[in-house]
Amino acid sequence: MAGSSHGHTPAAWTGVIIAFIGFCVSGAFMVAANPLGFWAGLGVVALGGVVGMAMRAAGYGAKKQVRSLTEASA
């Protein structure tokens, strides 16, 4: 894994940061016993995944590396 750029792309960073903010919002509203805010925070978490996938589709993610059968067996 150290040799690849797994997770080191603008798409990955943006998706994770948005999801982390949603996680923090959801956690704060869970402690405050506010179910509507909790579910809104989980919506932001899901939005982070959608934004990350959209950015990857726009070319801001890492390209998939296809390994040949000879590399996989070695």
Please give the share of residues in helix.
Answer: over 70%
Unreliable spans: none
Number of strands: 0
Structural class: mainly alpha
By oligomeric state, this entry counts as single chain
Amount of beta strand: under 5%
Question: Distance N terminus to C terminus?
Answer: 17 Å
Elements, N to C (H/E): HHH
Q: Which sheet architecture does the biggest sheet show?
A: none
Your description of this structure?
With about 70 residues, the protein is mostly helical. The chain has one domain (about 10-74). The protein has three helices and no strands. Helix 1 (about 10-30) runs antiparallel to helix 2.
What features would you highlight for this structure?
single chain, 74 residues, mainly alpha, 3 helices, 72% helix
Q: SSE layout and pairings?
A:
Elements lengths: L9 H22 L3 H26 L8 H5 L1
Helix pairs in contact: 1-2
Describe the structure concisely for a colleague:
72% of the residues lie in helices and 0% in strands.
